[in-house]
Structure formats: structure tokens, C-alpha cells
Amino acid sequence: MSVIKRTEKENGVIECLIDSSNILLSEYDKTKKTLKITFKAGTQYLYKQILDRDYVRFEVSESQGSVFNKTMNKYEFEKLEKIDTTELLELIKENKDN
């Protein structure tokens, strides 16, 4: 399990495709201090007021799921709309094959 593709966008959002048993995508907004996590089931959660050090610990870990379970549960969050993860799963497969 690990980050297989990291993209830092012009708007300050760091997007990571993740090869994990449960997490597909993380999107960290450095300005707003929010972290959106997309899970394999398509559920999405937005975590608020994330400390930079907690995000970095999450991103560089060999097991994002483990760090997520230990660290992110202390933050306020909201459940977002469920999405179809087919495209994300294909992106992860493509990036793993390269």
C-alpha cells in the first residue's frame, strides 16, 4: 500500500492516488487545511482543520490506512456524496502497470 501518483495542483491541492485495501484517493487542500478521502466503496469524507504534520505523516506512510485510522479520527468531518469509483480504480491500475 502506498501513494502511486502524487499531483500538486496550482490551487494548492495535493492529490494522491493510493494503492490501498480501502483508500483510493486523497485530496489535501493546503490553504483550507482540508483532506478529502475517497474509499473503494465510493464513500467520501471531508476532514477539517488538518495539521500539516498529520497530512505529511499520512502521505509518506507505507500504510495510509493505518495512519488514517490512528490520526484522522480526531478531526471534525462530514460525509460527502458517494461516487462511482470505476474511473479511479482504472487510473490506479494504469499507474501501477507503468
Shape: globular
Number of distinct beta strands = 6
Largest sheet: 6 strands, antiparallel
Low-pLDDT residue intervals, each spanning 5 or more residues: none
What's the helix-strand series?
A: EEEEEHHEH
- The separation of the N and C termini measures 16 Å
Topology:
Elements: E1 2-8, E2 13-19, E3 23-29, E4 34-39, E5 44-47, H1 52-60, H2 64-71, E6 77-80, H3 86-97
Antiparallel strand pairs: 1-2, 2-3, 3-4, 4-5, 5-6
Please provide a written account of the structure:
The structure is a single chain. The protein is α+β, with helices and mostly antiparallel strands and 98 residues long. It has one domain (2-83). The chain is 30% helix and 36% strand. The protein is built from three helices and six strands. A six-stranded antiparallel sheet has the order 1-2-3-4-5-6, sandwiched between helices. β2 (13-19) and β3 (23-29) form a beta hairpin. α1 (52-60) runs antiparallel to α2 (64-71).
